[in-house]
Amino acid sequence: MSKINSAKIHKIIIKVVVILIFHIVVGLIVPLLFAIWLYKKERKIVIIIFPLAIVVSLLFNIVGFYMGWWLVHPILKINCVTALAYDLGMYPVLGSFLILAIKKLFGFRFLLILIFSFATTFFEWIAVLLEIVEYGQGWNIFWTFISYFVAYFLVYLYYLCVLNKVVKL
Questions:
Q1: Is the CB of residue 81 less than 8 Å from the CB of residue 20?
Q2: Residue 6, Cα to own-chain centre: how many angstroms?
Q3: Would you list the domain boundaries of the chain?
Q4: Cα gap 109→98, rounded to integer Å
Q5: Residue pLDDT, tens place only, 125-157
Q6: CB-CB contact of 19 with 74 (8 Å)
Q7: Residues 6+ apart with CB under 8 A from 127
Q8: What is the pTM of this model?
């Protein structure tokens, strides 16, 4: 009996470790490779946007986990740890690329915010379908889009403040 339980526990542990490695690779390592490339091209954007985007992402995720709006599998005792790779990698990289796109195509800034919001929502929708992300408490893909739109808009507003020297660096 204990061998069966031990084998099941072993399989569960391996599954959790594999999923956590997936989160680290997809959410942190791959985006940071793009961040290195972007840093070589547009150093100021990365230096200005990256820290703020991390803070915005952490705040949104902490509130979302606390309110029970979403979970990221595997569910750990402190669930926001599972999403930490994305908070430190993917989301600040996407925010930095948004600002790069806005810098290059300023006339289309609101369209770019919409495109980035839709694209990020689409990838999260895939994560929901794959049962990597789970929604609760009435949260749905529409609210996900709104949260990404607000987050990207906050990053853009900060960028405007820096451009207009409201925030001194």
A1: no
A2: 35
A3: 2-163
A4: 9
A5: 999 999 999 999 999 999 999 999 999 999 999
A6: yes
A7: 133
A8: 0.90
Identify whether the C-beta of residue 53 lies closer than 8 Å to the C-beta of residue 97: no
Residue-wise burial string across 124-155, b where 16 or more C-beta atoms lie within 10 A, e elsewhere? beebbeeebbebeeebeeeebbebbbebbebb
67: tokens are: 């309110």
Strand partners, 159: none
Characterize 97-122 residue by residue with b for buried, 16 or more Cβ atoms within 10 angstroms of its Cβ, and e for exposed: bbbbbbeeeeeebeebbeebbeebbe
Question: Which of 16, 15, 43, 46 is CA-nearest to residue 31?
Answer: 46
Q: If you ran DSSP here, which 8-state letter would residue 77 be given? A: S
CB proximity list for 135: less than 8 A, separation 6 or greater: 69, 70, 128, 144
In angstroms, the CA 85 to CA 111 distance is 28
Q: How far apart are CA 51 and CA 167, in angstroms?
A: 14
pLDDT at 169: 54
